[in-house]
Give the backbone structure.
Amino acid sequence: MSKTRIFSVVGARPQFVKAAIVSQALEKYPDVEHCIVHTGQHYDQNMSDVFFQELGMPAPAFNLHIGGGGHGAMTGRQLEALEKLYLEEKPDVVVVYGDTNSTLAGALAAAKIHIPLAHVEAGLRSFNRMPEEINRVLTDHITDVHFSVTDVSTANLAREGITGDRVEQPGDVMYDCALQMAKVAEQKSKALETFGVEPGKFVLCTVHRAANTDDPKRLRVLMEGLDLLAEKLPVILPLHPRTRQHVDALGFKPKSANFKIVEPIGYIDIVRLERAAGVIVTDSGGVQREAFFHKVPCVTFRDETEWTELVDSGWNTLAPLEDPKAFAELCASRVGTRGDAREHYGNGDAGEKIAATLVKMPQMTFKR
Ligand code: UD1
Ligand code: UDP
């Protein structure tokens, strides 16, 4: 009997983390052939290869090398290439992750030719029309099996009529990964020494959302705010390539020697920094949750978040980007604070639960 072929379509940094956990769980099924399909959306060594190496994930079986360009060009080229690949390789199941252009292309190509489709991280909503929201709403409405993360994301799906046995809530694969890698990071990483920082006495920041990077006013408030904050506490800012382009265009140069703007950092080192930071300041969906997984307070400089339970429970604070001084003060005031003791993201076995359903999908029938 031939093996069940499961294709995981990934392309961007957070998707490598999520797929690594599903990949690991699928290894326990000898009758399954799991193939990673890399669209090529992220391609720099420290935005892509480093995750495969550090998370022990098999190299992509297929790499389409389609990155860069506008939304339409990127998604369209990926869609065309993925449809061709699916028709040639005949996967039994396609799995997509999160909410990037690679997610939408992977999902749309599969749905149109009726390949059973699963979405890991279904049901997240920001209730605006940011690019990721468009990708996730469209993906959820053509998906066969939805792996929701939280009670909130399950309720969002229900509100849109997506209910019943099409929805499972296994928890968050990123939580599984954080639990697994915490010890590895403590043992292997020298990031604190490299950056010359002490536990609890520095700020870790990441920024890459278009709403922040592409708006020079917001980006300037952020950079000036972090520069002021660095006068009190060292700030480490690994710059996403998108952000690097915009910071360079702004002509911003930090005044404080304690404001360390560096290249993107590998997963093991970022986990070490996350666990030791006094406060994490970010617009990343993944980093917001990782702050909570490692029990570090977080400030999110967005007007809304998909992860509302972290704001409600006091672990995360939404911050306006209007005034550098007010922003710096808010970030400093969160150091040492804690939220309540509730857990929201499952038991660290989301990957195993997802794998157990994926292997059954070829035998399932879907109402379409
Ligand atoms: C993408 C996702 C976003 C996700 C983020 C994770 C979409 C619409 N956005 O945003 O949801 O949170 O990834 O990091 O899919 N670049 C490089 N090297 C790389 C990757 C990107 O130089 O390895 C540069 C390119 O100039 C590219 C730009 O960054 O045009 C933006 O990359 P893109 O993948 O389009 O969007 P992200 O901002 O990374
Ligand atoms: N990350 C990393 N190095 C960095 C910044 C982030 O390894 O320099 C990791 C981070 O720990 C998380 C993932 O990348 O696991 C999140 O990706 P990103 O913030 O780019 O995307 P989002 O989660 O917002 O979609």
About this structure: Residues 12-14, 41-44, 47, 67-68, 99-101, 131-132, 208, 240-242 surround uridine-diphosphate-N-acetylglucosamine (ligand 1) (CB under 6 Å). Residues 4-172+347-363 form a domain with the Rossmann fold fold (CATH 3.40.50.2000). The chain has two domains: 4-172+347-363, 177-333. The chain has a mean pLDDT of 97.
